[in-house]
Write a structure and sequence with these properties.
The structure is a single chain. It contains two helices and 98 strands. The protein is mainly β. The chain has nine domains: 139 residues, Sandwich (Jelly Rolls); 314 residues, Neuraminidase; 95 residues, Immunoglobulins (Immunoglobulin-like); 104 residues, Immunoglobulins (Immunoglobulin-like, Sandwich), CATH 2.60.40; 98 residues, Immunoglobulin-like; 95 residues, Immunoglobulin-like; 87 residues, Immunoglobulin-like, CATH 2.60.40.10; 134 residues, no CATH class; and more. The strands form 24 sheets. Strands 55, 57, 58, 60, 61 and 62 form a six-stranded mixed β-sheet that branches. Strands 64, 66, 67, 69, 70 and 71 form a six-stranded mixed β-sheet that branches.
Length: 1241
């Protein structure tokens, strides 16, 4: 016996249930267990800084927060006070309102004192100072108050201190007392505000760093620490405050390893009947811990969990731990793993809890029985834990029954070893079920574990569907076969058997047949089974899965009939409506049936073309046609067509009928026969052969048909190859009785091998053809065709793909024609051939020709006669081509830019040519210039084919502002005006702008009366001095080339000849590139403040910065400067000289004296007499040169002037110096600079 099951064993399935003090472990484990976990790091954005060796305690003014004070991190100690609210996970730093506060420290302890205050004692700082002060802190008023006590513990740190609630005392043990470790036990009397030293008979060994906790029974516990030998310890002691006595526990199994700086707290929630102390963390030498150990004093035993906690933390020491009763959790802060931590976490363990599963849904259509509940891991394997279950069920997943045990009561449980039988009827036939697990642990911190829960159930088989016999069926078999479809069972693996009942009563009160255990889906009533007598019967089936029966199938009715029907007595036969067809007709005879349905369902027709058919020869007659009736009752007239017979043949017929039970009648009567369709006959009278015909002639014929009353139609065909083929249809569909046709012989070609064929076709499609006995001749003269242009009509507008169509007429109807199609775009003055076609139309794609208003079409048609003759047709008027014509695309004017000053020497205009949406359109431009912004009046230059134009300035006035724009026009006259308004330039002799708008210049002094200021861009390929200057700057420490464009600034006459200028002064503005607004020239590390305008010294082949420092106009993105000479200008990066002499360099260095020279470069900021001296390393003078102020070598300017001199390696005596290192001294004014030069021969 099999059943279906549903299993929950994954994290997602478990996590969708309701958890009460239990936890679902992640996908690696997929289990449910009692809560035993560390939280994730809860630290909010605002929290104490990382630290260790601080102290924390429960806030006495709140049951849900803790106070943290002091601590240590990276060589610093703290005295800040923080409060952590566990309800909303927020840290808050207290603002101290008192004028005094404890010094920063660590290794101290704070404990609750009363309802508002805490007690602070001891600690130390990084300098090695130990404290023995006693402080009160009011958590509500945030005030510190130092206590004056006559006696107190000595200065110390890393001691253990806890408050004993039921004694109103604070107990202090051990600690490090400035160089030694203590085992003293001290009391602080809260009411008396006094310290006193206890004298127990025995005491733990002296130590520091022991963890401490207080339980509800009045005992203080300490664990571990470091003894006087600096060895970590693992002993556990308790101190009874009332008796002032220490007690040591000797439990070894599962005890924590020796350690110091661990955390210990009392687990009040899981205490049962005795104390439960929890130890975690700490350090041994360099080994840190993160284990959880439970100690139960009443059993003197340590315990470990059988499962690892969730969210295992890193091993650490020096953290704080505070048990918060309202949360029933211990909260931890800080500590150190490999670094001091800032984490806020809690630890929680529960000794009991419950888990309510998500619902299990089992859709069913029959009946449902819940079977078994299985659980793994085995819930009873873990010693000291128990696990029990209850079930609840629902029919709609909305209204749930209570959770119940095995007897259906709410106070009983499924316990013991699973699996559990859950077959109580209270849950059966309820689609939804849930289980609830109850977890308990009597041995801390053990937990039951559930890894998988499986619920097993059984559904009854589905209702059986009967197949055969169909309900209401009639049969002539007394032992029929019953069959049905397989029953479906939602339970996997169930073996299905069947139970069949047959009875002549619908209630099945006493079935004639009742058979169960059938393992197939059919049953034959044979063997000992009773015969079904003629009459009405009923049958039904149900399925069984070895557990439950499904519902009975619907009951089917069966009629048994064994009586034969009467034969046909009025059979007749006649020709059919198509070839090879005969129509048989008869009237259905009498029949009887228990169902009352006395109609016939089938027939069997036999036919023969040899002789009549008898009862004895019926079954052996090979010609057979069978068929069925939808309904043929007694007296119904039937017509049945017999197809597939031979034409022109007489056939004999006989028929048998079958009633709905399959009983057959005897052979029909009387004998019936009929002739099938035969083809008609036709004879041609004229032409008979030898005739010579032209123009219209009569074709004559005669016809007959073997089938009386058949009608005929006629078709006439022509051959001009002596009867080999008849490709031309002269006429078709000529009606019945036609015997002649008047034929226009111009429809065919001339020739001597013509024949005529006539085909006669009867109404059923049989035909007969005959042709002329001999050839005859056709002789017609050739006549010219005529042509008429149909579309497009003159005066219309066309677009897209247009059909050019024309009509052709020709008296010689058999002539073929070719047509030549021409087009003109100049109103018919000139035509070009588009194509030659053999049709009377041509598809013209007008998108391949330009838009325009003056198109015409011409057609010339030529026939194939002898001789060939032609005709032509023309458009009567012009046709326009407009392919969704749009105006030209938007475009902008480029130069002169608005506000530019332009010289008449290069009065160039430029604008965008963005084309036209109609790519075939040819655009022309008009340049419009006016002194008025509304362009009234204006000067217009039309018919410009490019997007640039140089204007003659003869009609313009100097120092005048001109507005300008451009109009683009397409062939159909649509226009587009350049974008923007108020675009103006100034025609000026004194001011001008480069055509790319980068350089602007204004001459303020020295312009001759006949002169014009001019700017022209210069390429290095045009002027070699530019390339030389660029190369020169490679050795110049102060100048960096920017690969900027160069421009020649000059003054020219009206004929563009250069004029000399005395003492010119100019203001220039050079635009720079700073696209990303980072204040550096694009693509370089040159700051904008270091940009300079430089002039080309064409003789020396070097760039010289303008004498005066420029101004950087960030708004205009340009460098502004003044210059006092004309020439080639560019933009460079240059450092401002930091001294009167700077940038001293030479190259090559070293150099080969006698073979080459070394170039010595230096920058001067003033004109001064300059002396160059070269010394040996011993101080002997080798060479001395003097340069007068202002000459090359002694020239300077505020922005720095690069001087260059050369040394060939000769001394003052004209001899080459020896190899070695020489000292160059440059002295200008009161300053001098030195540089070493190497000579290698």
């Amino acid at each position: 016996m099999f059943a279906n099951s549903s299993t929950q064993n994954s994290y997602n399935q478990f996590n969708s249930g309701k958890q009460d003090q239990v936890q679902v472990v992640d996908a690696a484990t997929d289990s449910i267990q009692l809560s035993f976990q560390w939280s994730s790091d809860l630290t909010p954005a605002l929290s104490p800084s990382p630290r260790r060796w601080h102290s924390a305690c429960l806030n006495p003014a709140s049951n849900s927060s803790m106070i943290v004070f002091g601590g240590y991190n990276s060589g610093s100690e703290f005295n800040d006070v923080w409060e952590y609210n566990s309800s909303n996970n927020l840290w808050n730093q207290h603002i101290i309102t008192s004028t005094v506060a404890p010094q920063a420290r660590y290794g101290h302890t704070i404990v609750p004192l009363d309802s508002n205050r805490i007690l602070l004692f001891g600690g130390k700082n990084e300098a090695g100072t130990y404290y023995g002060d006693t402080w009160f802190y009011n958590c509500s008023t945030t005030k510190w108050e130092e206590q004056s006590v006559s006696t107190s513990p000595s200065n110390r740190a890393f001691f253990s201190m806890a408050r004993v609630d039921n004694q109103s005392k604070v107990v202090l043990f051990g600690g490090n007392t400035e160089g030694t470790k203590s085992n003293e036990t001290w009391f602080y009397d809260i009411a008396a505000k006094t310290w006193s030293l206890a004298s127990p008979q025995t005491a733990p060994a002296a130590r520091t760093g022991a963890s401490i906790a207080y339980d509800n029974a009045g005992k203080v516990f300490i664990f571990g620490g470091v003894n006087i030998s600096n060895a970590e310890m693992q002993d556990l002691w308790s101190y009874d405050v009332v008796s002032s006595s220490w007690y040591v526990y000797n439990a070894a199994s599962n005890a924590p390893e020796a350690r110091t700086d661990s955390s210990m707290f009392y687990d009040a929630y899981n205490s049962f009947t005795s104390s439960c102390i929890v130890v975690t963390g700490g350090i041994f030498n360099t080994t840190r811990y993160n284990d959880i150990r439970y100690f139960v004093p009443i059993t003197n035993s340590w315990a470990l969990s059988n499962e690892a906690p969730l969210n295992v933390i890193t091993a650490r020491y020096g953290q704080s731990a505070v048990y918060i009763p309202s949360q029933r959790k211990s909260f931890f802060f800080g500590g150190s793993d490999t670094a001091n931590l800032q984490e806020t976490r809690y630890f929680v363990y529960r000794a009991s809890g419950s888990f309510e599963s998500a619902y299990i849904d089992v859709p069913f259509t029959t009946s449902l029985q819940w079977k078994q509940l299985s659980v793994t891991d085995n819930p009873q394997v873990i010693t000291g834990t128990t696990l029990k279950f209850q079930l609840a069920s629902s029919t709609d997943n909305a209204n749930w029954d209570s959770f119940r045990g095995p007897d259906g009561n709410t106070n009983t449980f499924f316990t013991g070893m699973p699996p559990y039988s859950i077959g109580t009827t209270v849950h059966n036939n309820r689609r939804f079920i849930k289980y609830k697990a109850y977890f308990d642990a009597t041995t801390l911190p053990k937990t039951p574990v559930i890894k998988s829960v499986t619920v097993t159930y059984n559904s009854a088989p589905n209702k059986v569907t009967l197949l055969s016999p169909l309900t209401g069926a009639t049969t002539n078999f007394s032992r029929p076969v019953f069959s049905w479809l397989d029953s479906q069972d939602s339970d996997t693996g169930d073996i299905i058997t069947y139970h069949l009942q047959v009875d002549n009563a619908p209630a099945f009160s006493s079935p004639e047949i009742s058979t169960s255990g059938l393992n197939t889906t059919s049953f034959l009533t044979s063997g000992t089974t009773s015969l079904l007598t003629p009459g009405t019967w009923y049958w039904q089936v149900r399925a069984f899965d070895a557990t439950a029966y499904g519902d009975w199938s619907d009951s089917y009715t069966l009629y048994v009939d064994t009586i034969a029907p009467n034969p046909i007595t009025d059979l007749s036969a006649s020709i059919g409506y198509s070839n090879g067809q005969i129509i048989l007709s008869w009237t259905s005879p009498w029949d009887s049936s228990p169902s009352g349905n006395t109609y016939f369902k089938a027939y069997d027709i036999r036919h023969s073309s040899i002789s009549a058919i008898t009862a004895g020869s019926f079954d052996s007659t090979p010609g057979q046609n069978t068929g069925s009736f939808a309904n043929s009752p007694q007296g119904h007239h039937e017509n049945v067509a017999v197809d597939g017979l031979n034409n022109s043949t007489t056939y004999y017929f006989a028929v048998k009928l079958y009633d709905i039970a399959g009983n057959s009648s005897t052979i029909s009567s009387p004998q019936a026969s009929a002739l099938t369709n035969a083809p008609p006959l036709v004879t041609i009278i004229a032409p008979s052969g030898g005739e010579n015909w032209a123009a219209e002639q009569d074709i004559l014929w005669s016809s007959a048909d073997p089938n009386p009353g058949d009608t005929r139609v006629f078709s006439i065909y022509e051959s001009f190859d002596g009867g080999l083929t008849f490709p031309v249809t002269v006429a078709s569909g000529l009606p019945n009785g036609t015997t002649h046709y008047l034929w226009n012989t111009r429809q065919t070609c001339n020739g001597a091998e013509h024949k005529i064929k006539i085909t006669a076709t009867d109404e059923r499609g049989l035909n007969f053809s005959t042709a002329s006995a001999a050839n005859f001749q056709i002789s017609n003269i050739n006549e010219a065709p005529s042509v008429s242009l149909q579309t497009p009509a003159g005066g219309t507008t066309i677009s897209g793909t247009v059909q050019i169509s024309w009509s052709v007429s020709d008296p010689n109807l058999a002539d073929s024609h070719s047509s030549a199609v021409y087009i003109s775009n100049d109103s018919g003055e000139n035509f070009s051939l588009l194509s030659t076609v053999n049709a009377t139309y041509y598809q013209l794609n007008t998108r391949t020709i330009p838009n325009g208003p003056n198109y015409r079409i011409k057609i010339i048609v030529t026939d194939n006669g002898a001789p060939p003759l032609s005709a032509e047709a023309l458009s009567t008027a012009d046709i326009s081509v407009n392919n969704q014509n749009f105006p030209p695309m938007d475009f902008s004017i480029i130069y002169p830019a608005s506000g530019d000053n332009v010289s008449q020497l290069n009065l160039d205009f430029a604008w965008e040519n963005n084309g036209d949406p109609n790519p075939e359109d040819i655009i022309s431009f008009s340049l419009v210039i006016s002194t008025a912004e509304n362009f009234t009046p204006s000067f217009v230059v039309e018919g410009i084919s490019t997007n640039t134009y140089r204007l003659s300035p003869l009609s313009l006035t100097q120092e005048t502002t001109y507005f300008w724009r451009v109009v683009a026009k397409d062939p159909l006259g649509l226009e587009k005006i350049s974008s923007g308004s108020g675009w103006a330039f100034v025609l000026s002799r004194f001011k001008t702008t480069s055509t790319d708008s980068k350089l602007y210049a204004e001459i303020t002094q020295g312009l001759p009366d006949n002169g014009y200021l001019k700017i022209v861009k210069v390429q290095s390929s045009e002027l070699k001095a530019i390339a030389m200057a660029d190369e020169f700057t490679l050795a110049d420490r102060l100048i960096k080339p920017l690969n900027e464009d160069s421009y020649r600034l000059s003054v020219c006459a009206a004929d563009d000849s250069v004029l000399p200028v005395d003492n010119p002064k100019c203001e220039i503005k050079f635009r720079y590139r700073n696209s990303n607004k980072d204040n550096y020239y694009d693509g370089t590390s040159v700051p904008l403040k270091n940009l300079r305008c430089a002039l080309l010294n064409e003789n020396a082949g070097k760039w010289e910065t303008a004498p005066d420092f420029p101004s950087i106009d960030s708004g205009a993105g340009a460098v502004r400067t003044a210059i006092s000479k004309l020439g080639v200008i560019t933009l460079v990066g240059a450092l401002a000289p930091v001294s009167a002499i700077s940038g001293v360099t030479n190259f090559p260095n070293p150099f080969a004296a006698g073979k080459e020279e070394t170039r010595i470069l230096y920058v001067l900021t003033e004109n001064h007499d300059t002396t160059i001296k070269i010394y040996t390393q011993l101080g002997d003078l080798v060479l001395e040169r003097n340069y007068p102020s202002g000459s090359e070598g002694a020239k300077g300017q505020p922005t720095g002037y690069s001087n260059e001199i050369k040394w060939d390696g000769k001394n003052n005596s004209g001899r080459y110096v020896a190899n070695g290192i020489y000292l160059l001294e440059i002295k200008s004014g009161s300053e001098k600079q030195l540089r070493k030069i190497g000579v290698v021969k």
